[in-house]
Here is the input.
Amino acid sequence: MFDILTSAEKKFGIYNGLQMMTDLTLDAMRLSRNHPALGEKEWFDHMLFADELGNGNVRKSGDLRPLILAALAKRNFSMDSNSHAEFIFKANGNDVTAGQPGSRSKPIPVTLKPGETKPFNLTVQLKNSAFYKFKFPVQVRVSLAGGPIQGAIHWKDEERSPIVYTLKSEADIAKIPLVATAQCDEINRDDGSCVDYASVQILNNGQDANSKPQAKKRFYLRMKSVKSRNIGFNM
Here is the structure.
């Protein structure tokens, strides 16, 4: 929404652009009243419809359509839901997506004894679209500590974080060996377990490491360490 506003102010002038965007937004809100399942696509559908209707001298029909579509494309959002660039992130061959194992709402449960470890093979691949293109060679930065509420699980080689991989083209696949240890550096769940994540960020060629990444995903685990049972024998 801010990108559309900025483009409108640049094309029509600050005052006119602000007035047009405000009017369009209020019109789209009016058309969206009592919508039972208003999501991103539905909202921008309503914006495009409101733009098509126009509003007298404030804005003509279709004035903002190219700006809306350009802003969405820049954010890798397409109205047909098919022509978007892809950040393919897998753990042990399974996609890590919202609501699936490894996501924030569904961390993978792991139970380990002291000294044991659990490996996970993460992979990252990127696919361009007609509207959004990654700038190869792309950096894949894997952070195991330092992020918000990060640091509960003690990962192997955590001190090397962030670990950087390079993708030279769409055909490349970054193979990321991730190993969780049985050590909880911080207990953050009532049952004595700890939940933590590995953060995977995508940086375009030439992009500063401190700037906002082009894309990012997380891989969540819930680890519980259990003590080994000593079995004694009476002689």
